[in-house]
Amino acid sequence: MFGYINYKIDTESKILYIVYKGTITIDNIVQSIEEIISHPNYSVDYDTLVDMQTCHLNINLKELNRISNFLDIDPKLNANRNSIYLTNKPNEVVITTLYSKLIKNSKVTPHIISTIEAAQSHLSSHIEIDQLKSNLDSLR
Fold first, then answer.
1. Where would you tag: which of 46, 68, 73, 113 has the fewest CB atoms within 10 A of its CB?
2. Phi, psi (5° rounding) for residue 50?
3. Cα gap 85→33, rounded to integer Å
4. Half-sphere exposure of 6 (CA within 13 A, CB side)
5. What's the pLDDT at 1?
6. Burial of 128 by CB count in 10 Å (0-12 exposed, 13-18 middle, 19+ buried)?
7. Which class for 59: exposed (0-12), middle (13-18), buried (19 or more C-beta within 10 A)?
8. Distance between CA atoms of 10 and 49, rounded to whole angstroms?
């Protein structure tokens, strides 16, 4: 299955929702990052909620370094915010854990979690669980 990435920028709650589906490669991620940061509603200080529950990350360590370097290169990505990775599959947990170690010197605080309730607890703004679920479901 080919991969795709959908996103939604919620300016009211200041959350960037991203859903990965299918087999996701480095090229998918780079392309989506470039698209997202050029969107007029994008703000570097919005929390990010990335749903990886229905994807397979096909990324090696060298490629993971490439993604982490974006934080060093582009000021549109490195700000005080939470980046929440919703996943429960071993491959994606390992990759996001490695990524969180690679970005430890950035301003971004990564959280690798397995439930929407845990995701809610790491968001800076208050948003109801039903609204979180609805926003993610609309992108799947």
1. 73
2. -110, 115
3. 15
4. 12
5. 65
6. exposed
7. buried
8. 11
